[in-house]
Amino acid sequence: MDLGLAIKSIRKQKGLKQNQFAELCEITPSYLSQIENNNKEPNLSILKIISNNLGTPLPILFFLSLDNDDINPEKKEAFKMIAPSIKSLVNQFFAV
């Protein structure tokens, strides 16, 4: 799961600089950077603030952060086939 990459990607799609977004979320730019680089795991309350400010529901943020390692081995092939299309659709609907 790459939650930091999902947050960073949506933030950039929305045209928000890291400093701007950190201010919106009332966290330091350093803490946001650590979250986006997966060096810190934010608690649920911070994740809710981040998802609200991204305009992306938290379950969608979790879905967008899924990677191949998170999927059951028997379902990896199906995930590889459908994930890009589903993630693209979800991104278009929620992220921008």
Automatic annotation (TrEMBL):
Residue ranges annotated for the HTH cro/C1-type domain, each copy included: 7-61
Domain of life: Bacteria
Keyword Endoplasmic reticulum: no
Keywords: DNA-binding
PROSITE patterns the record matches: HTH_CROC1
Pfam families: HTH_3
Xref: SUPFAM superfamilies: lambda repressor-like DNA-binding domains
InterPro entries: Cro/C1-type_HTH, Lambda_DNA-bd_dom_sf, TransReg_Diox_bact_type
Designated name of the protein: Helix-turn-helix transcriptional regulator
Gene source species: Christiangramia sediminicola
Taxonomic placement: Bacteria, Pseudomonadati, Bacteroidota, Flavobacteriia, Flavobacteriales
